[in-house]
Specification:
- By secondary structure, this protein is of the alpha+beta class.
- The protein has 16 helices and 14 strands.
- The strands form four sheets. Strands 6, 7, 8, 10 and 12 form a five-stranded antiparallel β-sheet that branches. A four-stranded antiparallel β-sheet has the order 11-9-13-14, with no helix packed on it. Strands 1-2-3 form a three-stranded antiparallel β-sheet, with no helix packed on it.
- β2 and β3 form a beta hairpin.
- The longest helix is centred in the first third of the chain and has 26 residues.
- The protein is elongated.
- This is Cytochrome c oxidase accessory protein CcoG.
């Protein structure tokens, strides 16, 4: 027995080009609506303005890398608040799991960027070269002048869409109108041109050439989704109990006239022709099926033409397929343990994020004890400890009074800062800035503690009275 005995099929299969046919129906309209909304938001959002006051950027959504800020309308996030992005990732994962538990690969079929941009590229291709039949005939002729002209125009439009896709992305990292002007006059930073080039190339390749191969071979989600789904999840399903045996329209009519059962499927292949990945849904759920519902539209249109009920292909569950075979009515359970757990996780994480965002402080303080030396013994027998204090101000320019708690009789001094009326130094911090100062805490000989003790370094907004505190320790003489 040779090793070839165990090989059931080829290890490599040459790509068969897919020529999706245009289709009309509710699912196609849903996909057009999502495409227009998502791409409209992506391309236009950098130009939306939001007034944050003097000295702050007025772009509604901005990733300000030089100043290490992320602005989203009225929300401003600092690097120290990276946990909000962690929360967003958790929410995104839970939403993905919930969509899968309710109706399979909803993300893949309607919201995935690869799906959205590929749909747009297909629309351009149909507009330039024609529908499925015209494109297939054109590829066979190939070297005719008319075909070359159409292909050149198609690729030019693809590159323009890809170029604007890359250009829109970099606009989220700088003031959009200013950057557009700089790009047009070749005064923009080299990094901007580099990333536009990279994203133009990837969009052009992924949406124009890789297409369904991204979904079948490169994307990990179909493999993960298969492990997360269950028998209650709605998936695009060919109802075999109604469709088989397949016959032509005339043969089916003749069979029914004689009292024999005939399936509603007329083997027209319209469900295959409209599929963007070339899947035959009649073979069941497959890795390549992104469950976009276009085969449902195609099949419903055919059923209407031949006078048969719609729904030969539709969103259904494995449970209902079994129940129909047993002659039982279908049942649906959208609300079940799995969906409740995902919904609860989304609600809990979302509530925590909203609460922390609504109650977060606009100021903070960090303290670092000097290590060398840990303390300084003064000539009069007193002891001094030095600290590096960093004050974070997330609002307008403010003054902060600095004091120490937990160490009675301590004197606080800050290099280069005069003490306030109560003897505590008052530190000025500019708008949306951090300021680092060197603080000295000194106690007289009769106040020196016998052992190291914890102290609190507190800052108080002179105007509003808002406070923030950090803990450290005071080291006495040995």
């Amino acid at each position: 027995m040779t090793d070839d005995t165990f090989i059931e099929g080829p290890l490599y299969e040459k790509r068969r080009k897919v020529y999706p046919q245009s289709v009309h129906g509710p699912f196609r309209r849903i996909k057009w609506a999502i495409l227009c909304v998502t791409l409209g938001v992506y391309y236009l959002l950098p130009f939306v303005r939001w007034n944050r006051g003097p000295g702050l950027p007025d772009q509604a959504v901005l990733i300000d890398l030089p100043h290490r800020r992320f602005y989203f309308f009225f929300i401003e996030l600092w690097p120290q608040e990276v946990y909000y992005f962690t929360g967003l990732l958790i929410l995104a994962a839970m939403m993905l799991f919930l969509m899968n538990a309710v109706a399979g690969r909803l993300w893949c079929g309607y919201l995935c960027p690869q799906t959205v941009w590929t749909d747009l590229f297909y629309a351009v291709e149909r507009w330039v070269e024609g529908d499925r039949r015209e494109r297939m005939q054109g590829d066979k002729r190939y070297w005719t002048f008319d075909h070359i002209r159409k292909v050149a125009l198609k690729h030019f439009l693809w590159i323009m869409i890809a170029w604007w896709t890359g250009g829109a992305w970099v606009l989220y990292f700088d003031d959009a109108p200013t950057l557009v002007k700089e790009l047009a006059t070749f005064q923009a930073p080299f990094t901007a041109y580099l990333w536009i080039g990279i994203l133009t190339a990837t969009t052009y390749v992924f949406a124009g050439h890789a297409r369904e191969q991204m979904c079948i071979y490169m994307c990990p989600w179909p493999r993960i989704q298969a492990a997360l789904t269950d028998e209650w999840a709605l998936n695009v399903t060919y109802r075999r109990d109604r469709g088989e045996p397949r016959m032509s329209v005339k043969k089916a009519e003749a069979a029914r006239a004689h009292g024999d059962f005939a399936g509603d499927c007329v083997d027209c292949h319209q469900c295959i022709n409209v599929c963007p990945t070339g899947v035959d849904i009649r073979h069941g759920i497959q890795l390549g099926c992104i469950q976009c519902g276009l085969c449902i539209d195609a099949c419903d249109n055919v059923m209407s033409e031949i006078g048969r009920p719609k729904g030969l292909i539709g969103y259904d569950t494995d449970i209902n397929m079994q129940r129909r075979r047993e002659g039982k009515p279908p049942i649906y359970r959208i609300i079940r343990a799995r969906t409740l757990v995902y919904t609860a996780a989304i609600a809990i994480v979302g509530t925590i994020m909203v609460y922390t965002l609504a109650t977060r402080a606009t100021m903070d303080v960090n303290v670092l004890h000097e290590r060398n030396p840990l303390f300084v013994q003064l000539s009069d027998g007193g002891v001094r400890n030095d600290y590096t204090v960093r004050i974070l101000n997330k609002g307008a320019e403010r003054s902060f009074a600095l004091k120490v708690s937990g160490l009675p009789g301590a004197t606080v001094r800050v290099a280069g800062v005069e003490p306030g009326p109560d003897g505590n130094p008052v530190v000025q911090v500019g708008q949306d800035q951090t300021r680092e100062v060197r603080m000295s805490v000194q106690v007289s000989p009769d106040r020196v503690p016998r052992a190291a003790i914890d102290i609190g370094v507190e800052i108080t907004d002179v105007g509003s009275g808002e406070r923030a505190e950090a803990r450290d320790h005071f080291v006495p003489k040995e």
